[in-house]
Amino acid sequence: MQVVLDDYVWAAGVATELVNTAPEVWHGEDHLPDLASLAAFADLHSLPEPARPGDLRAVHRLRATVRNLIDHPDQKHVIPDASALTSQAAQVTLTDSARWAVSLRPRATVTDALSLICGVGILGVVQTLGTERFRACAAPTCQGAFIDTTRPGRRRYCMPGLCGNRVNVANHRARIKRHDA
Predict the structure, then answer these.
(1) What pTM did the predictor assign?
(2) How far apart are CA 6 and CA 25, in angstroms?
(3) How far from 7 is each of 14, 63, 117, CA to CA, in Å?
């Protein structure tokens, strides 16, 4: 597996999806509760299949690490900590399309692949857009976090289709209630 270094938008999206599988985002329900759900997440992102029982615990630890980096994007810590996530890479190469990529070592685990992807995403965003793009969800009942890679940098919700819709529906109902009163 190779992760192209300038594809930080995709990588940051995977990091955002990973942190938003946590129980605190879903009011106590973990969206990666077992190896089957981890296998589905891995398949969705073309990652190596989880093969060991320890893979789930390792991904949960990685999820907490990535969440901490998003929640506390202190410039002097985020770069070395995100760089440490990419340490599973075997080599940096120049691809056929003249793009730099990082390759995983042979027999890399799903955690190694996710770690590399999250590290590349975080480092790419820090370099290109800045740490102010690391945000908490603006929905009042959500504990999610995300990395905003949109061009204007105005994203407000960790999952716009879910959190954004909930806020819009609540606002709509409040307007109707005020109008009817």
Answers:
(1) 0.86
(2) 29
(3) 11, 20, 10
CB neighbour list of residue 53: distance below 8 Å, 6 or more residues apart: 35
Q: Backbone dihedral region of 153: left (phi > 0), alpha (psi from -120 to 50 degrees) or beta?
A: left
44 close to 140: Cβ distance less than 8 angstroms? no
Alpha-carbon torsion 24, 59, 55, 10, what sign? positive
Q: What total of structural domains would you count in the chain?
A: 1
Instruction: Give dist(CA 67, CA 47) in Å, integer.
Output: 20
In this structure, the number of other CB atoms found within 10 A of the CB of residue 100 comes to: 13
DSSP annotation of 32: S
3-state helix, strand, coil in the chain (%, to 5): 55, 10, 35
CATH number of the domain residue 121 falls in: 1.10.3300.10
Domain that includes residue 119, residue range: 2-180
Beta-bridge partners for 2: 103
Instruction: Identify the segments of the chain with pLDDT beneath 70.
Output: 88-95, 98, 167-168, 170-172, 181
